[in-house]
Amino acid sequence: MLSRFVVLPVSLTLKVSPFQDWFEYARLRGSYQLWTEDWMPDSASFRWSYYASRLRSSIALANHDGMEFSGYIVPRSSGGRDGGLLQRIVTLIGSGAKGVRYFDVK
Hints:
Layout: E1 3-7, E2 16-20, H1 22-27, E3 33-37, H2 47-62, E4 68-73, H3 84-94, E5 99-102
Parallel strand pairs: 3-4, 4-5
Antiparallel strand pairs: 1-2
């Protein structure tokens, strides 16, 4: 089973949400590149370091050569504080991400 159902605290969501188990996905080599995205406000940008650490650890524990991680940055959810968008980008790159893409819905 590649996904798990996790009950999140009420402050995050009011329902049960499926989340990818990155460790199992990397171990089974579900793809060559693990990927995530953010839809959070600037006040929650610190979560990127958590996501990046999990992705990096998943790849390290899977012990597959050539596997990388990257992420989508969502500019639309930014603008709550100065440097919020930049904090996301720098955290992702500083954690070892090999790609950063901007996701913008027009």
